[in-house]
Amino acid sequence: MKLSELGEDAVVAQLTRSLRLDRRVELGAGDDCAVVETTGGLQLLKSDCIIEGVHFSPAADPKWIGWKAMCRSISDIAAMGGKPLDALVTLAVCPETEFTWLKRVYLGLQTAAKSYAVNLVGGETAKSPGPIFLSVAMTGMVKDGRYASRSGGQKGDLLYVTGRLGGSIAGRHLRFHPRVAEARWLVQRFPVHAMMDLSDGLASDLPRLARASRVGFEVDLANLPLHRGCSRENGLQDGEDYELLFAVPPTAKRKLEAEWWTTFPKLRLTAIGRLVENGVSQFIGKGYDHFAR
Amino acid sequence: MKLSELGEDAVVAQLTRSLRLDRRVELGAGDDCAVVETTGGLQLLKSDCIIEGVHFSPAADPKWIGWKAMCRSISDIAAMGGKPLDALVTLAVCPETEFTWLKRVYLGLQTAAKSYAVNLVGGETAKSPGPIFLSVAMTGMVKDGRYASRSGGQKGDLLYVTGRLGGSIAGRHLRFHPRVAEARWLVQRFPVHAMMDLSDGLASDLPRLARASRVGFEVDLANLPLHRGCSRENGLQDGEDYELLFAVPPTAKRKLEAEWWTTFPKLRLTAIGRLVENGVSQFIGKGYDHFAR
User: Fold this and answer.
1) B7 and A CB contact within 8 Å
2) A168, A265, B44, B71: which could join A33 in a potential S-S bond, CB 3.0 to 4.6 Å?
């Protein structure tokens, strides 16, 4: 059945009926706003979006489209060392869309929300005369005021990345796992000077971290952790790895590497380079620019 | 100059350079997330969107496109009796868009944010191969736990609307003023059983309020406050009035009407009907359905 046959209210009612909500949520989807209990302190806020033909192919499994939309915003909360809490979904679709397709997008959104203990508390549904548009806004919290921005990196810091890089277009760009537990563990136990998630590729994202921190960078190109079959250029430029990139002082190296292996034995951690004096960055190519032709 | 000539980072840097932020904001646009100070208690969350060709014409003044996007979400916070706090903007545009056009959209977003003391703290910018998409996610707070949902209406309650209805397509749909002060005043001084903002027209929105409250409704059709030149059908079905619709017990009538006129002398308040027993609603036509053909 098509959305135009069901009508807006029935579509929204069916999609939001079985949403997982914890006790913090006083009022979920269906009213003008959601109402949630907050504890005070520092809150994280981020919105992101994925668009048909840009971030996913129309032929992709809609469950993984929903998963990706939710996990991109979760990954941004992770990138600060935060815990994701509540999500709002804004969806624009053609009225001729099949309801079964949309239900599977919601299955993906809900599966991701459940995996990361996120409440899907509402949003908006509208018709689009063009490509499908799916935006997720996310709130998160920070423990004891500790979070990692992009701007605290210092000359001499070591640069690490989690996991492996490159080749996400083969499928990982849809099915990745945001590094929430890893990032929280890092900011709570180590002096993480700067951190971000790798969404546009190391060649775009590392210069952003360095620019925000007013330092330069060097990368040990021979040391990049690459996915099987990927070249160094794939690792630098492909994007959508959603791994963590972070900077810690060299004094943290020994303890960090020892404890990482025992805490996250299945996820690789690699020292890939260091922050250096401002103005002397190595050229590592260009990553993804959303507006480039 | 086109966005594709400037590149993503330069576009975002220029757009977010002069954003108004109050002292609650520890970190604004430019990092993975915004970081804001929260006080604890009940938080309101809402996201909304407007799409080129659906919610605005490509020929519209971009300043008012930005104003509308921001004010729709503010209006949802108002509809609960809340105070809007922080906004995230998610924007998808064609890379061939002129930067001057986009700067004017941001002028509208910022003007609205300033008018309602909202912090624009971040979001996301992406390329769209189709129509322009502009989504605003908003947080808000509630004083002393008092807010009005749609679902508390009771049989016998009187129904009121603020302002006048109908004919918004002539321009008010872009340039409206969310009723934040009025709604906060209402929930703090009167037993508002249910409230919402009128976005899809009284004929769509009143049945939603009644359904959420499990009651019916009656409207004094001769009593609808209409904009000049509007018919009763315009008042019921046009949508995008962004006025408040609310239900209070009849015992509140005298004090409410007397104090309203002295507090908001320039804004009309009209008793338009009442909530009745479930199942006996009057038929008042059909309002806007986003998915209807």
Assistant:
1) yes
2) B44
pLDDT tens by residue, A68-111: 999 999 999 999 999 999 999 999 999 999 999 999 999 999 99
Q: Which domain holds residue A198?
A: 158-276
pLDDT in tens, B123-169: 888 988 889 999 999 999 998 999 999 999 999 999 999 999 999 99
Question: Does A152 map to a domain?
Answer: no
A205 and B CB contact within 8 Å:
no
Determine if the pTM surpasses 0.80.
Answer: yes
B43 and chain A: CB distance < 8 Å anywhere?
A: yes
Query: Total domain count for chain B?
Result: 2
3 state SS for chain B: CEHHHHCHHHHHHHHHCCCCCCCCEEECECECCEEEEECCEEEEEEEEEEEECCCECCCCCHHHHHHHHHHHHHHHHHHCCCEEEEEEEEEEECCCCEHHHHHHHHHHHHHHHHHCCCEEEEEEEEECCCCCEEEEEEEEECHHHCCCCCCCCCCCCEEEEECCECCHHHCHHHHCCCCHHHHHHHHHHCCCCEEEECCCCHHHHHHHHHHHHCCEEEECHHHCCECCCCCHHHHHHCCCCCCEEEEECHHHHHHHHHHHHHHCCCCCEEEEEEEECCCCCCCCCCCCCCCCC
Asked if B39 is an interface residue toward chain A (Cβ–Cβ < 8 A), one would say yes
Chain A interface test: which of B25, B43, B288 (most A C-beta within 10 Å): B43
Facing residue for A42 by CB, picked from B8, B26, B49 = B26
CB contact under 8 A, A45 and B208: no
**B28 found inside a domain:** yes
Same domain, A229 and A252: yes
Boundary of a domain, candidates B145, B172, B206: B145
